[in-house]
Amino acid sequence: MADIKLLYEELGFADVATYIQSGNVVFSANAERGLAEKISTGIVKMFGFGVPVLVKTIAEVEAILVACPFSEEKKVASYFTLLDETPSKDLRKQVNKLTYPNEEFVIDENCVYFFSEKGYGNAKFNNNFFEKKLMVAATTRNYSTLVKLLELAE
Fold first, then answer.
1. What does the pLDDT profile of the chain (154 residues) look like in tens digits?
2. Total domains present in the chain
3. 20 to 30 A Cα–Cα from 20, which one of 2, 8, 134, 148?
4. Which DSSP helix (H) or strand (E) runs through 111?
């Protein structure tokens, strides 16, 4: 993560902070277009491989947490699959028909809200499932991680 922090600083971002070993980076930047592409290109140059990069503003993450359709008790135990782009209505409709015992999800335009009574480790509806079925790049974080990232961003 130290190398990732250095990369972001070399790309001209300020106030760079990383959180745990899963690619969470908080930074300040001018409101410019193409941040994800700029970061992705930098990763390829520095590390020699590409990875999907999703950039969300503080306001976007706050809105995602506020819009969570689950009760407060479920919300704090939920997972949030952040979507790179809005999946088509047809794909959302198809996926919404699927069910699995003890797992529930709600898909909106930029997030899949997911709760599993048995936790995320053995969930059928995981990040890979939603990426494949909705045909969008995505990354999943738990409630605690999103709250911590907001704290770092403030």
1. 789 999 999 999 999 999 988 789 999 998 778 999 999 999 999 999 988 899 999 999 999 999 999 999 999 999 999 999 999 999 999 999 999 999 999 999 999 999 999 999 989 999 999 999 999 999 999 999 999 999 999 8
2. 2
3. 134
4. strand 111-116
From the list 130, 131, 64, 141, the residue with the least C-alpha distance to 98 is 130
pTM of the model: 0.92
φ, ψ (nearest 5 deg) of residue 110:
-130, 10
100, part of any domain:
yes
Taking the alpha carbons at both ends of the chain, their separation in whole angstroms is: 20
Residues of the domain holding 22? 2-47
In degrees, rounded to 5, the angle at the alpha carbon of residue 61 between the alpha carbons of residues 148 and 37 is: 105
Among the listed residues 120, 125, 96, the one whose alpha carbon sits nearest the alpha carbon of residue 108: 96
- Cα 60 to the center of its chain, rounded Å: 11
Backbone angles phi, psi at 7, to 5 degrees: -60, -50
Q: Is 20 exposed, middle or buried (0-12, 13-18, 19+ CB in 10 A)?
A: exposed
Question: What 8-state DSSP symbol labels residue 59?
Answer: H
Q: Are residues 24 and 69 in the same domain?
A: no
